[in-house]
Amino acid sequence: MSGTETRWLTKDTAIIDLNFQGAEKVIAAYLLETDAGLALIETGPASTIDTLVRGVESLGRDVADIRDLLVTHIHLDHAGAAGLLMQRNPEARLYVHEVGAPHSIDPTNLVRSATRIYGDQMDTLWGEIVPVPADRVVALTDGESFDLGGRRFNVLYTPGHASHHVAFHDERHNLAFTGDVAGIRIPPSPDVLPPTPPPDINVPLWHTSVAKLRELAPARLLLTHFGVVNDVQAHLDLLDRRLDEWVVLLEALVAEGIDRDAMVERLKAHVAAQMESDGTTGVALQTALATPYGMAVDGLLRYLRKRDEMAS
Ligand SMILES: [Zn+2]
């Protein structure tokens, strides 16, 4: 089953719910129609490729017509299926930031570090990671634009969550596809959470990227986790605030001297209290799948360590 969230948002832009781990509203891919065929923004993980195929079919289209794959960054929940899709579609090309491109072509390090984190869960969670042929990769840089069948896209380099993260601005509808840089917000929750896994978290850079999105002032944000945001400026303000709150919380936990697992419990409790006061405990499962708290703590601790090393 593809998720009930799968639908056309405009006549040429659709959201596909990949039903990650059987849960709705965790990972989205976006299908775009252009005069040159179909494009996909985010492929999702390889483990959900069958759901992706069925989602495209349920929208009345065929995966074989996808010509262009755009990914915001190479983390496995965003780009894990790229290699498999390109094997199936020999014409397709992958658009990825120049720093991420080498890891799509040779995913050895990517798979190795993911295996270190996920161990024997690797295959269940992410599926088979297939390398992408180098001659079909379009390496992107900040500020460039490209045209897909009459539809123009601008590339915004938006590090902070990942050092090679980009957002895509669709000029036709003034939409911003923001990957993880605009945070996680599971509908109908009004709350925004920053996904902070290792190894690249950089809070000042993240704020700069959020400022860039604010200045772009798109009509809507399209989050990978999950869906459409209409109150763009308020959403971005809240993300900035939450990011700083998490840093302050982690600094306090480090000062307390508690161990890592205790920190994970405290972050979990912090978010649970927030959900309780928002009345949005119904999205707790989706939130935890989109940003596992252990990884969130590890990523922030690594950031604090790097920051303090730089300062001394
Ligand atoms: Zn993600």
Short description:
By secondary structure, the chain is an alpha/beta fold. It has eleven helices and 13 strands. Zinc ion binds next to helix 2.
How does this structure look, described?
The chain has 312 residues and is of the alpha/beta class. The chain is built from eleven helices and 13 strands. A seven-stranded mixed sheet has the order 1-2-3-4-5-6-7. The protein has a six-stranded mixed sheet with strand order 8-9-10-11-12-13. β1 (7-10) and β2 form a beta hairpin. α7 (203-216) runs antiparallel to α8 (232-256), α8 packs across α11 (293-311) and α9 crosses α11. It is globular. Bound molecules: zinc ion. Zinc ion binds at residues 75, 77-78, 180, 195, 224-225.
Q: In which order are the strands of the major sheet placed?
A: 1-2-3-4-5-6-7
Show unreliable segments.
Answer: none
Cofactors, ions, other ligands: zinc ion
The biggest sheet amounts to: 7 strands, mixed
Which H/E pattern describes the elements? EEEEHEHHEHHHEEEEEHEEHHHH
Strand content: 15-25%
- Mind telling me the C-alpha Rg? 18 Å
Question: How does the helix and strand content classify structurally?
Answer: alpha/beta
Distance between the termini: 53 Å
**Helical content, roughly?**
40-55%
Tell the overall outline: globular
